[in-house]
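Lab channel / #folding
Pinned by the channel admin:
"Please post every new chain as: sequence first, then the structure tokens as a reply. Keep commentary short and put observations after the output so the thread stays searchable."

First post following the new format, from NK:
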Amino acid sequence: MAIKVEEVPRDASQATILLCSRLLTDFADWHVLQCEPWQAPPARPRDEAYVREVLADPEQWLLLAFLEDKAVGIIHLSVHHTRDKPGWPDHDYGYIEAEWVRPVKRRQGVGKAMVEATKKHFRTLGIDSIETNVWGWNTKSRALHEARGAQIKNINYVIWLEPDTRL
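Reply from TO:
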């Protein structure tokens, strides 16, 4: 099975924009179902306007993954700048905003191919590191990134003092 990962062109067709929106919405819907009620869902819908906004931003990209010529995954990339943070050294780094593989197509190398394409993409831009955030409960995503060479940068904990404060 050949896996292809391709960057979505800035002037993508309406059909491609709808496809990206559908995959990003599937990701957002799945994410909400996996989260505890107190974990905030994405701030806005991943609709056509969202996809167009991403494609219009020169520091954001969408890559689509194809398996047997069918789109089965998407990854949303951006560049972050430490110069925007007072006191930090000037450094640009790649960031994985979201990644999604349709559940029925997982465990076939699609996620691996998307991460490798992401590494290649950022290398061509002269970027030397990539970051992302993964929920602690998402052991499959954590395993994917660790297998691709990711290292834990920080761990966030929460201690709830009252059970009802989570709602």
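NK: The longest strand covers residues 70-81.
TO: also worth noting, The CA atoms of residues 8 and 62 lie 6 Å apart.
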